[in-house]
Amino acid sequence: MGPEVTASREGALLVVGDVVTDVVARHRGPLAGGTDTAATIRTLPGGAGANVACWAAHAGCADVRLLGRVGADTAAWHERELVAAGVRPRLVVDPEAATGTVICLVDTGAAAERTFLTDSGASLRLEPADWSDAWLDGVARLHLSGYLLFTEPSRALARTALAAARARGVPVSLDPASAGFLARLGVDRFLAFAEGLDVLLPSRDEACLLTGLPDPVDAAAKLSRHVSLVVVKAGADGALVARSGATPVRIPATPAAPRDTTGAGDAFTGAFLAALLTGADPQEAASRGCRAGAEAVRRVGARPPRTGSDR
């Protein structure tokens, strides 16, 4: 399952999810229809699942593993990038589909808001045949990217992985990933899957969509009656930690001047899970998640910096 990395005494984190190529186009102001809009464009490794794994390793988790599916076109590049980030990749090479690609349109105004154009490609063609219960050997936590739920093959894989983890007593977390895709999947279908989770990490918009409530505080509390620990990521407003229906605790954001908000939620999730593995309580873990999110928005792209690089 990739190069050997010294195992953490707390156990490994296994992430199952998407590995994609990000094409990040940073522009200022509205796009000009029918003509050119000046932009700075970079091609970078991405994917919510892969990003979470890289940020967990960056946050100090010594044994981070990733199961994903890529095309032959960029498989070697993605493996090199993951290994360099301290992740042990198990990348299934799809014989038919190319690696997924996401075009990230980032407005370089003050909010650095982004819009995604997504071609999931091979990333959501993961299927139960790609799973082995052996992937859980030595694993203390399993994290599933919510993107897995948006196609039937990868949804079946997610159900298989969840059942295997629960049989071993391994806690499972999930990030819903996309309010747009979530609306198409359907709230009831998502919540039925979520009943088997230990931790849910939605964004503010996803939490409100899943509950039908406009206030994220109320939404967090309601969701925590379905999943015992819910952490709502609220960007510049920090995070909300809700447990078993109780009033959520607000965790303040770490101030940051954003350049690119792509991957900020993944950074939060990776650092949060790494903190839980070292024994931090959910509030402290969420504080570390906020710090990682602030670090992420200060840079272009969705991955953490590597040693000796400002990338």
From TrEMBL:
Q: What InterPro entries is this protein classified in?
A: Carboh/pur_kinase_PfkB_CS, PfkB_dom, Ribokinase-like
Alphabetical UniProt keywords: Kinase, Transferase
Listed PROSITE patterns: PFKB_KINASES_2
Top-rank lineage group of the source organism: Bacteria
Q: What is the lineage of its organism?
A: Bacteria, Bacillati, Actinomycetota, Actinomycetes, Kitasatosporales
UniProt key word Cell division: no
> In this protein, which residues make up the domain named Carbohydrate kinase PfkB?
13-304
Alphabetical list of Pfam families matching this protein:
PfkB
**What name does this protein carry?**
Sugar kinase
Molecular function per GO? kinase activity
Establish whether keyword Transmembrane helix is in the entry.
Answer: no
